[in-house]
Design goal:
Layout: H1 2-28, E1 36-37, H2 43-53, E2 64-69, E3 76-81, E4 93-99, H3 115-132, H4 137-149, H5 151-167, H6 171-183, H7 189-198, H8 202-207
Parallel strand pairs: 1-2, 2-4
Antiparallel strand pairs: 3-4
Helix pairs in contact: 2-3, 3-5, 3-6, 4-5
Length: 221
């Protein structure tokens, strides 16, 4: 009987320890959140985003909203949402504003884009948000200033967004998006020139490594 009591007590202790461990784990790792979509968003746009979202595991712990709306200066805008009361913390949400029409394309609706092009575009934008994770809330303020004022910094960040998308398995979609925007006559030459200036080329996307390449220290010979 004494042995049975010890076994029972051991089982109780293990059960309690397991429950405590589970509670601690879930307290430190917030549950995954599903993205919210604006009312009336095009179903094709919604489904393409969700296809891409599933591969960006690190973003699932944040609140996220996809809003389809009229945009006058871009086709998509990936942005952090920071409460000013928490500017010195790392708490934030994210949102992706999606235009109804492709910028400088006449009347081309986002929902009329080929599915691989749409996924490639979303993969690029979520690449930006993964890049944002490397910056504090205060750092994001500086990020925005540098992005607006420095062509070199803007180019670096756009290339990094493409690299992140490729590392998440979207190389073919990124290439499809670039070819579509650069090879169609209904895309404004002004917009195409901006793409050439700031974004990774098709050749660059083809050669971009699937894994992050470490920066090796210089060696004095």
């Amino acid at each position: 009987m004494q042995f049975k009591h010890k076994v029972f007590a051991g089982a109780v202790i293990l059960t309690v320890l397991g429950a405590v461990s589970y509670a601690i784990k879930n307290a430190s790792s917030p549950p995954a959140e599903s993205p919210n979509f604006s009312e009336g968003i095009n179903p094709k746009v919604r489904n393409a985003f969700l296809d891409v979202w599933t591969r960006y595991d690190s973003l699932h712990r944040y609140g996220f909203e996809v809003i389809q709306m009229d945009l006058s200066t871009s086709t998509m805008q990936a942005q952090p949402v920071i409460d000013l009361r928490e500017i010195f913390s790392n708490k934030r949400r994210y949102k992706l504003n999606v235009a109804k029409k492709v910028l400088d394309s006449g009347d081309l609706n986002i929902s009329d884009l080929p599915e691989d092009v749409l996924r490639g575009w979303f993969a690029h934008e979520l690449g930006h948000i993964v890049d944002y994770e490397n910056h504090s809330n205060m750092g994001m303020v500086l990020y925005g200033v540098r992005y607006s004022l420095s062509d070199k910094y803007k180019r670096e960040r756009e290339h990094e967004a493409d690299s992140i998308a490729i590392r998440h398995g979207f190389r073919e979609e990124i290439i499809a998006t670039k070819k579509y925007l650069m090879e169609n006559d209904f895309i404004s030459p002004v917009y195409q020139n901006q793409l050439k200036k700031f974004y990774m080329s098709v050749r660059g996307a083809e050669l971009c490594p699937d894994e992050r390449v470490p920066i090796l220290p210089k060696v004095d010979l």
